[in-house]
Amino acid sequence: MEKRNALIAGATGLVGNAILQQLLSDDAYGKIIIITRKPLGIIHPKLVQQQIDFDEISMLKIGFEVDDVFCALGTTIKTAGSQDAFYKVDYSYVVNLGNWCAQNAVKQFLIVSAMGANPKSGIFYNRVKGEMEAAVSGLQISHVKVFRPSLLMGNRTEKRAGEKFAQFAMGTLGFLFAGPLLKYKGIRADVVAKAMIKVAKLEIQGFRIYESGEMQEM
User: Fold this and answer.
1) C-alpha angle with apex 50: 44 to 51, nearest 5 degrees?
2) pTM
3) Residue 52 in contact with residue 11, Cβ under 8 Å?
4) Which of 23, 25, 50, 157 has the most CB atoms at less than 10 Å from its CB?
5) Are 102 and 140 in contact, with CB atoms under 8 Å apart?
């Protein structure tokens, strides 16, 4: 059986790194390329690292066919420094990568979004995520899949105010989130990654959104 090739954007982040680690150990994948601003300290026979300027993503050149593009790009307004800078990362970079997929005959574009994403939301973060989802849904790509995790559980290199306490509280009270409340339960980054890879292998046609509870049930 011919092996798949994958590209990951955002491999330095919590979910992106989980995707990378799982794909490197997955026999279904032959080559994994990560696009980053600076190289990761990882050496693996399947891994190809390419440093790029994300403002010039349309110029990206890959020397082999890519089946699945996993996008885990994302930041916070505090880290980005302004709403405009946040918008560039969480909307422009993601949509521009999607346009690159469409122009390079990539079959699948799988994106990490967020619970509550809504283009009409009064919350800036949720509105940007919703606008991004609406934009990628119209791209000329056979398979576009969006994943909306709730609170992500895991150890970030980047410290986010309040997140450690929220993770602790969710870990203590997580048993309360069952049935219809499952989608609000905190979700581990490796669970999100596993769900994304599983969906990629299914090759379900068209645009679809996966909520956090659905990912946990996988």
Assistant:
1) 130
2) 0.87
3) no
4) 23
5) yes
Structural tokens at position 126: 């949720």
Contacts with 102 (C-beta within 8 Å, 6 or more apart), sequence order = 139, 140, 141
Per-residue pLDDT of 125-151, as tens digits, reads: 999 999 999 999 999 999 999 999 999
Q: pLDDT tens for residues 46-83? A: 999 999 999 999 999 998 999 999 999 999 999 999 99
Q: In what order do the strands lie in the sheet with 47-51?
A: 47-51, 29-36, 4-9, 68-71, 108-112, 143-148, 206-211
